[in-house]
């Protein structure tokens, strides 16, 4: 049976995960709790943590807040301020290769490389989301009317990916062949970068707020429905003409709020509006309950690197680490 090491916090859990063996919980009151042999609380922001992203090496966490700061927190609690923009809410954040970060507020975005060199990007509409490509310093920026791809370190012409509507979060496929955005209108939109082919994924009753690729990029798992919806991307045309895989269906009153694909196996952790967490296997849909309902909707969900622990948090400030046998 799985075991749970519960935590109780005083604020909404914005993000949860692992810095090596240390579990972290970034909260709506600006604090980041580090749970290990010697628990620590780092006051990262004067207001709320608005966004958090694990650095690619997995040993530090980058957060941004409504105090205009972007900070990096190490597993030992050390905090470094990476950027300060007074009177701005930094609510969009991405981590990239070799210590690079990107962050946005309103109609502007910035990148910062490991040497502290910043570059600003200004657009006509508010930035909806940011994501670095799996390899190289290429940045995807979601916006109204589509997404734009920038080579950060060159002066080349950006690639414009167009589709009417407001585009929010953005994500690259692990092989770098596709870019997918969530939209304001309860849908996803994707582009095949080799030829710009559009891919529209609809049918959600609510907005998609969580997306997670399987380890080898075969499926893109999403929240926003009464089951985890997994769109197939293994073929040349992505999900077009194919039905999505649906896992963990519990009825219309139990919507999925968070998804986290296992880092190695074809399995997925699913968090629900009522606080339930379960894991489901792709092959046969077999399920295993990891946490019973209660204490608010699941707002954060993340596997450890080896896939034997799962960190979770809720909107009401509950959290914890689930250890699999």
Automatic annotation (TrEMBL):
SUPFAM superfamilies: Quinoprotein alcohol dehydrogenase-like
Source domain of life: Bacteria
Listed name of the protein: WD-40 repeat-containing protein
Species name: Breoghania corrubedonensis
């Amino acid at each position: 049976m799985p075991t749970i090491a519960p935590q109780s916090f005083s604020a909404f859990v914005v993000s949860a995960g692992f810095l090596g063996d240390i579990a972290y919980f970034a909260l709506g009151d600006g604090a980041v709790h580090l749970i290990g042999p010697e628990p620590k609380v780092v006051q990262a922001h004067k207001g709320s943590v608005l966004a958090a992203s694990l650095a690619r090496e997995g040993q530090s966490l980058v957060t941004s807040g409504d105090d205009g700061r972007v900070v990096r927190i190490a597993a030992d609690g050390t905090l470094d301020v990476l950027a300060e923009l007074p009177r701005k809410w930094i609510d969009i954040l991405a981590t990239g290769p070799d210590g690079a970060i990107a962050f946005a507020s309103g109609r502007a975005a910035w990148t910062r490389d490991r040497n502290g060199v910043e570059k600003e990007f200004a657009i006509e509409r508010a930035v909806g989301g940011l994501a670095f490509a799996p390899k190289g310093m290429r940045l995807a920026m979601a916006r109204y009317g589509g997404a734009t791809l920038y080579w950060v370190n060159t002066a080349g012409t950006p690639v414009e990916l167009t589709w009417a509507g407001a585009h929010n979060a953005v994500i690259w496929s692990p092989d770098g062949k596709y870019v997918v955005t969530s939209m304001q209108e309860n849908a996803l939109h994707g582009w095949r970068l080799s030829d710009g082919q559009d891919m529209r994924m609809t049918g959600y009753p609510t907005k998609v707020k969580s997306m997670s690729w399987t380890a080898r990029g075969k499926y893109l798992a999403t929240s926003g429905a009464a089951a985890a919806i997994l769109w197939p991307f293994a073929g040349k045309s992505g999900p077009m003409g194919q039905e999505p895989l649906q896992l963990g269906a519990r009825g219309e009153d139990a919507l999925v709020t968070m998804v986290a694909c296992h880092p190695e196996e074809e399995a997925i952790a699913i968090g629900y509006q009522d606080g339930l967490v379960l894991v489901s296997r792709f092959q046969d849909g077999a399920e295993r309950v990891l946490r019973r309902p209660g204490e608010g909707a699941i707002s954060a969900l993340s596997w450890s690197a080896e896939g034997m622990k799962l960190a979770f948090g809720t909107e009401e400030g509950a959290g914890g680490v689930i250890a699999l046998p």
